[in-house]
Design goal:
Layout: H1 3-6, H2 12-20, E1 23-29, H3 33-44, E2 49-52, E3 68-69, H4 81-97, E4 103-112, H5 119-133, E5 142-145, H6 146-152, E6 161-171, H7 174-187, E7 191-193, E8 196-204, E9 207-215, E10 220-231, H8 237-243, E11 252-263, E12 272-276, E13 282-288, E14 291-295, E15 299-300, H9 312-325, E16 336-347, E17 362-365, E18 371-374, H10 381-395, H11 421-435, H12 442-452, H13 456-465, H14 473-488, H15 494-501, H16 504-507, H17 509-527, H18 531-545
Parallel strand pairs: 1-2, 1-10, 2-7, 4-12, 10-18
Antiparallel strand pairs: 3-6, 4-6, 5-6, 8-9, 9-10, 11-14, 11-15, 11-16, 12-13, 13-14, 17-18
Helix pairs in contact: 3-7, 3-10, 4-5, 11-12, 13-14, 14-17, 17-18
């Protein structure tokens, strides 16, 4: 079974049969960025790897972050220099290895008289930040005077404003980063499948040797066997272990982070802002397509881990924080076009506020040998995977092999050399020159290029193949994209396409409404849904979509 077949929903039945017949070196549970990173690292080091996800890939925390690969500027306040240095260097590594997805963006840090951020200390902190992260000259910190700032953004609160520092972070489509990492893991020999629930742990002489799995799509059970099992389920870490009658040595403390999306017309910024709030927290406002998203909150969470909801208090807090810094806007809840809520899988630290709890990852080994990893940050996922795979080699008594993921480019970034941003723009133009005869617009193609990177070739070829049968260019390319998503990214339902693979529910909700019937029809043809099943899938998606609406 080749790579194309191993990550295709159409080949799902054959894949399950294959996985049930193999004795793996390791089996990873959790299809977020941590699990994907572990699968890639382990497969590259020569281990036989399987990965299972309870729901869809990236459906939990990993598609609900602030969508930044950033170095943790706020940790300088806590003198966590080593942590900042690590994250800063990881930003550059992830940019080089996922160039189409991890892209540098300017961020403005306003300095206000009497505010939490002092100019001299912020300047020193940003210089250290640049130095620790090895930032290139063109991306180093600059001071923007007050008047220049107000000329560009006259809706800012000018009272006490001194100016702002401009520095750089990296924006990302977090859900797609997971998918591209998994696709590369599959290229390296791993097997991965979604919508599979663990049911029962099997042990041999007290050690975990197999887990019974329930396939939610094919409605069947099978047993997967391995020498080592990894629990990378994030907020579900404790729930996973309890389901298998295993314990975990430390208590998880999930906190909720909420983001709001408003129209760019109502919040017309061309750069991201990172600003302090009255309760001494920090919030981002980040432009994305035709919108700006604002976040995040950090509050204790008790409830259904699968469905963290936007509360009225979250809405009020974020809007009031923005309106205090940008008094000319006066955003209201009517301006919110979409939202998302995610959970941070933190380790409980008694007596600390949520924002004070460490974001460092921790590993635990259960009595039967299951390795659990939780905590950590999106930016540090590669290092978390390295630590975990190092432990796996030790636990399996294997000769040590070096981690090479610092130089492994994920799927979609298969350039000969990582291009600089100016060069990437030129490359996008070159790809468009090949595609434009299909009638696709520049804007539509560029959006697809930055979504799929070098894999746009596959979609382009399919669009040309169908060119004579589909006259409308937009529908032609949408049909080709849906085909690619199902056959190359294991998309199994409408949520998988509109939420986790494209983010359209967040930043293109109107297009979702317009495209839903057509996309459902494309999927029905690929996945052999009859009319009743198609209607059921549409209803299920529309119900799920409500979580992302105000």
């Amino acid at each position: 079974m080749d790579t194309f077949q191993r990550f295709s929903t159409i080949q799902r039945k054959a894949l399950v049969a294959q996985m049930a017949g193999i004795h793996f070196d390791i089996v990873v549970f959790g299809g977020g960025i941590t699990g994907a990173g572990i699968a890639l690292d382990a497969a590259d080091r020569g281990l036989l790897v399987a990965l299972f996800e309870n729901n869809d890939f990236a459906s939990g925390t990993s598609s609900r972050s602030t969508k930044l690969v950033h170095g943790g500027l706020r940790y300088l306040e806590k003198l966590q220099f080593r942590f900042v240095a690590q994250l800063g260097k990881e930003r550059k590594i992830l940019h080089d290895n996922a160039t189409h997805n991890v892209i540098p963006v300017p961020v403005l840090l306003p300095i206000v008289k009497g505010g939490q951020l002092k100019r001299s200390l912020s300047w020193m902190g940003l210089l250290i930040y640049d130095w620790l992260a090895g930032v290139k000259k063109e991306y180093r910190t600059q001071w923007i005077p007050k008047q220049e700032l107000l000329n560009k953004y006259p809706f800012m609160n000018s009272a006490g404003l001194k100016g702002a520092y401009r520095y750089y972070e990296y924006k990302t489509n977090d859900g797609r980063l997971v998918i591209e990492t998994l696709k590369k893991a599959v290229d390296e020999g791993a097997l991965a499948i979604n919508f599979c629930q663990p049911l029962e742990l099997m042990c041999t002489q007290g050690r975990a040797s197999g887990i019974k799995i329930h396939d939610l799509i094919q409605k069947q059970e099978f047993v997967v066997k391995a020498k080592c099992f990894i629990n990378a389920t994030g907020p579900w870490c404790s729930e996973f272990m309890l389901k298998l009658d295993e314990g975990i040595s430390k208590k998880l403390f999930p906190t909720k982070g909420v983001h709001l999306v408003v129209s760019h017309k109502r919040f017309p910024i061309s750069e991201a802002f990172y600003f302090d709030t009255q309760d001494r927290r920090m919030i981002f406002a980040i432009p994305r397509q035709q919108h700006v998203y604002i976040g995040t909150t950090d509050t204790p969470f008790i409830g259904d881990l699968r469905h963290p909801r936007l509360e009225k208090s979250d809405l009020i807090y974020l809007l009031e924080s923005v309106n205090e810094k940008f008094k000319g806007l006066q955003l209201t809840d009517a301006d919110v076009v979409s939202c998302w809520s995610g959970l941070r899988p933190l380790i409980q630290e008694v007596g600390k506020k949520p924002s004070e709890i460490s974001r460092k990852e921790e590993l635990f080994v259960s009595r039967s040998g299951i390795i659990s990893i939780t905590g950590g940050k999106l930016t540090g996922y590669r290092l978390m995977a390295k630590t975990t795979v190092d432990l796996i080699f030790k636990q399996l008594h294997l000769p040590r092999k070096a981690c090479n993921t610092h130089q492994i480019r994920v799927s979609g970034s298969q350039w000969q050399n990582p291009p600089e941003m100016k060069k990437l723009v030129e490359i996008a133009d070159q790809y468009f020159d090949f595609a434009k005869q299909t009638g696709i617009s520049v804007a539509s193609f560029k959006k697809l290029f930055y979504r799929y990177g070098t894999n746009i070739d596959v979609i382009t070829e399919k669009a040309y193949e169908w060119l004579r049968t589909e006259l409308d260019a937009e529908k032609l390319w949408l049909k080709a994209e849906v085909w690619y998503s199902v056959t190359h990214e294991m998309t199994a339902d409408l949520s998988g396409f509109f939420i986790y693979r494209t983010e359209m529910v967040l930043f293109e909700p109107q297009q979702v409404t317009e495209q839903l019937p057509f996309v459902a029809g494309c999927m029905a043809g690929l996945l052999q849904w009859d009319s009743d099943e198609t209607d059921k899938q549409i209803n299920q998606f529309q119900e799920h979509w409500k979580e992302y609406q105000r």
